[in-house]
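Fold it.
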Amino acid sequence: MSAGGAHGRARRGGGHDEGGHDGPDERWLVSYADMITVLMALFIVLFAISQVDAQKFQQLKQGLAEGVGANSSIPIDGGSGILVSNGSLAAPAQPQTAVQLEDPAATAAGAGAASPARAASAMEAARQEVERLDGLERQLEAALQSGGLGDRVDFRITDRGLVGAIVADDVFFESSSAALRDTGREVLDVMAPVLDADQHPLELQGHTNSLPVRGGVYPSNWELSAARAAAVVRHLEKDGIASERMTAVGHGQTRPLYPGDDEKALSGNRRVDLVVISDQPAEVKALLPEAAAEAEASAAPPAPAVAPDPVAVAPVVEASAADHADDGGH
């Protein structure tokens, strides 16, 4: 047997060559590359979330502070942990960057600085509105004077606007009745053109005195006061005032002009208030009575330096029972 044959059998019997290579195994590089990619993505995300939008964070901080009533610093980055051993929250220790809530003292100082200017602006607007309402009052009084009805309506300015109190005595309404009498219709007829030109909303408020209703179609002062206000609305509507501008309200005896022990209570509290409602903001309307008092004080004539000579006074004549017959009505 030749040496070549023995060598060939040895290669066939003991050889294990499967076609591989003799170099090192580099399959670990695939896993390493995957890990590097994941780490790079992680660092990119961490970098992205570390960039805080200060404006949006300020809005979030203010919303949270208003919700829970907090007044402290909120750390953005840096600082040590805030949990202690008992599970409670501890204040952050010297944060590197913090957004501070507004100082209450500084806020109050800023509001105090802006408040006088705002108050002055509102007062000036109230003065202008009082001037407008005074002009409307003068027009209404002139119209009433031209009809010989100047003493039938008493005007005043309140925080709602110009109020004309129409005394609901037997010349305007009969006792326990909501039917307008001739004089009442005349008063409304002469006022209607001025009110129609003004174009502000109108509210008619019915009022009665404290005496209970006895007999008639109205079971109480509530129904009587509301019916009188509605009667005035219906008549003004006939005079051409748009119904959309008007509201009828009955207050009964709950809003008297005079207290119960006043001699004017029975007659003066029986009235229908015609309210020309102001269209100014609430803060301006609240100042209308003050501005009206200021205007009235400035328009009042100065007190005389020397007291006038005494004037003889005619003797007082006692009023008969018939003169007060109307005071007990509604």
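Residues 233 and 292 are 27 Å apart (CA to CA).
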